[in-house]
């Protein structure tokens, strides 16, 4: 079941919530829709998004397609491949993040060039 629609530039994706971070999920759900001009860092996009949520099961290595919140920087991040912090090619954040959702298929992001506008919204 699809929970979220994620738009990156002109590309649309489906995502499902993670069960690992209920407080962060609730805080993000309360702010939807949310979006901004995302900055690119390797195969990661991030934009400003302030949520009232503590770190939950925070980690640096995340799965491909992870949508994560970085509490220390108040950013919402999308990972689909290696970043400058990666080791062995796995997506890796610069600091611990809380994974809240995951794209069903991040493959279309493989040829994304530069940053892009990014938006998350609830699927009705």
TrEMBL record:
It comes from Natronorubrum halalkaliphilum. Residues 4-118 form the Cyclophilin TM1367-like domain. This is Cyclophilin TM1367-like domain-containing protein. Gene3D superfamilies: 2.40.100.20. Pfam families: Cyclophil_like (PF04126). InterPro entries: Cyclophilin-like_dom_sf, Cyclophilin_TM1367.
């Amino acid at each position: 079941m699809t929970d979220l629609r994620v738009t990156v530039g002109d590309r649309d994706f489906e995502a499902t919530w993670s069960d690992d971070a209920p407080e962060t999920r609730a805080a993000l759900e309360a702010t939807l829709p949310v979006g901004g001009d995302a900055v690119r860092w390797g195969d990661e996009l991030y934009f400003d998004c302030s949520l009232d949520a503590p770190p939950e099961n925070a980690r640096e290595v995340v799965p491909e397609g992870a949508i994560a919140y970085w509490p220390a920087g108040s950013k919402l991040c999308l990972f689909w491949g290696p970043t400058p912090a990666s080791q062995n090619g796995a997506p890796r954040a610069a600091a611990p993040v809380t994974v809240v959702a995951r794209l069903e298929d991040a493959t279309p992001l493989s040829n994304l060039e530069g940053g892009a506008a990014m938006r998350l919204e609830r699927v009705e």
